[in-house]
Design brief:
The chain is built from 17 helices and 15 strands. The protein starts with 20 loop residues before the first helix and ends with a helix. It has 2 domains: 146 residues, Aspartate Aminotransferase, domain 1 (Alpha-Beta Complex), CATH 3.90.1150.10; 255 residues, Type I PLP-dependent aspartate aminotransferase-like (Major domain) (Aspartate Aminotransferase, domain 2, 3-Layer(aba) Sandwich). The strands form 4 sheets. Strands 2-8-7-6-5-3-4 form a 7-stranded mixed sheet, sandwiched between helices. A 4-stranded antiparallel sheet has the order 11-12-15-14, covered by helices on one side. It is α/β, with parallel strands linked by helices and 460 residues long. Bound molecules: pyridoxal-5'-phosphate. The site of pyridoxal-5'-phosphate (PLP) has 11 residues, from helix 5. Pyridoxal-5'-phosphate binds next to helix 5.
């Protein structure tokens, strides 16, 4: 039976060590809405919060500029084109990506879909990906399968959730070296928070693979320098970095691999010439080839402001801050025990914080070792206006590993169902699925962490 928190169990000043004058002031100036509305936001990996000044800057721009649809020479069109191109240059500079094209997309999934649709998979191809991947990367296997190529999942280790490199190297060695082979992995897991080894990029390329780096969960709190690591394709969502606007991401494509992507149709804005009489066309020779139709020209300029905002704080500073917060929370949660000595919390993945970002994935247990339902945690946290996330986070591979669900069990489930849902699958398998994800960010303070820990203590 879960009780509500009693005052004597509440702890104060648990997280004094993470107090920081700079970030406290930043919270007051840019994120005052949190305290004004008494919200504890701990879902930064789901979506970052936007600073007040960013919205104000965008509003000022819109109210003081006449924007026309780009791709024309009239003054308002030219103004929009100039700002979009300035923004594109800023994105490339931010990631030190002078060897890349920046293609604006609706989000990271839109970037990943371009790679899936356009990568020249054949029946000889191998699509190799880690079990730790977002569904928008998993989904690319459908494009490979359609061309009769093979998909190989490489496991992550049960104990630390790092990529099993022995298995990975075996799969690389088995691929046909003369085929179009693609390797995809997340720079940071959106579930475990683990930062995977970027050296794998070079290794895969030496083995003849093209590399798709899903950087969506990594770049909000870590520097990605594309002059050092040069994956062939990189997916990003900007709202994850600075919260506003939603609906804009990008695909960075190494210039040397641009022509390898084969566009399967054409649309307005992607061609230099189209003939109806001869049914011929010429595609544009740069990023425009993959930006179908009218881009979000009213809002794309805000991306430049957002990146400048991050630079004004410093991505290394953000990285350090988030690491400190996540480690403090991790250490505190680890100490929580029932009276009989059993742990209340299990946090998945390595304890080495050099390999971790700002999100923690965990489950909670009662004094008999029974799993406390996610719905209970959701209810308790929501009552205190705390936003965390529960479920599989669009990353079923990590969940299958954490909950020790085998390939045979999943095959059995799918063979016996035409369709299904989460709860019903748990019943069929007689297993738990899902976890709680807590993620910290630039506006997180010691009180946020304390409020969350106090709720967790209340279930003891
Ligand atoms: C690692 C990772 N990849 C891809 C995505 C998909 O991003 P979006 O939903 O913005 O397309 C996410 C979103 O949570 C993510 O965390």
């Amino acid at each position: 039976m879960i009780q509500t928190i009693s005052p004597e169990k509440q702890s104060k000043n648990l997280f004094l060590g993470v107090k920081d004058v700079f970030f406290e002031q930043l919270r007051r100036i840019e994120y005052s809405i949190l305290d004004n509305q008494n919200q504890v936001y701990l879902d930064y990996t789901g979506g970052n919060l936007f600073p007040k000044s960013l919205v104000q800057k965008h509003q000022d721009l819109l109210l003081n500029t006449v924007f026309g649809n780009p791709h024309s020479v009239n003054p308002t069109s030219q103004r929009a084109t100039d700002l979009v191109e300035e923004t594109r240059a800023k994105v490339l500079q931010f990631f030190n990506a002078q060897d890349y094209y920046c293609i604006f997309t609706p989000n990271a999934s839109g970037a990943l879909k371009i790679v899936g649709e356009s990568y020249p998979f054949t029946c000889k191809s191998s699509y190799v990906l880690t079990a730790d991947n977002h569904n928008s990367v998993n989904g690319i296997r459908e494009f490979c399968r359609k061309q009769l190529g093979d998909t190989h999942y490489v496991p992550v280790n049960q104990d630390d959730l790092l990529i099993n490199t022995d298995a990975l190297f075996d799969v690389f060695n088995q691929a046909k070296p003369d085929a179009n082979n693609l390797f995809a992995f997340p720079a940071q897991s959106n579930v475990s928070g683990i930062k995977h080894d970027l050296e794998l990029i070079k290794y895969a390329q030496q083995k003849g693979f093209d590399v798709l780096l899903d950087a969506a969960a990594f770049v909000p709190t870590s520097r990605l320098d594309l002059s050092i690591y040069q994956p062939d394709f990189v997916s990003i969502s900007f709202y994850k970095i600075f919260g506003y606007p939603t609906g804009i991401g990008c695909l960075l494509v190494h210039k040397s691999k641009f022509d390898k992507l084969k566009k399967s149709w054409f649309a307005g804005g992607t061609v230099t010439l189209v003939s109806v009489a001869s049914q011929k066309k010429f595609l544009t020779n740069n990023h425009e080839r993959f930006e179908d139709g009218t881009i979000n020209y009213n809002t794309i300029p805000t991306i430049k402001f957002g990146l400048e905002y991050i630079e004004s704080i410093g991505i290394e500073r953000i990285s350090k801050r988030v690491n400190l917060l996540a480690k403090a929370l991790f250490d505190e949660l680890k100490t929580l025990k029932h009276d009989n000595g059993r742990s209340l919390v299990k946090i998945y993945g390595t304890e080495n914080f050099e390999k971790r970002g700002g999100n923690l994935c965990m489950n909670f247990y009662d004094k008999n070792g029974g799993n406390i339902p996610l719905k209970t945690i959701e209810k308790l946290t929501s009552e205190k206006q705390i936003s965390i996330r529960t479920g599989c986070f669009c990353n079923p591979g990590i969940d299958e590993i954490n909950n020790q669900i085998s390939q045979a069990e999943m095959n059995d489930y799918f063979m016996n169902h035409e369709n299904g849902n989460y709860d019903e699958m748990c019943q069929f398998l007689q297993k738990n699925r899902g976890a709680v994800r807590v993620s910290v960010g630039v506006a997180t303070n010691s009180e946020d962490l304390e409020k969350f820990v106090n709720v967790i203590k209340s279930i003891k």
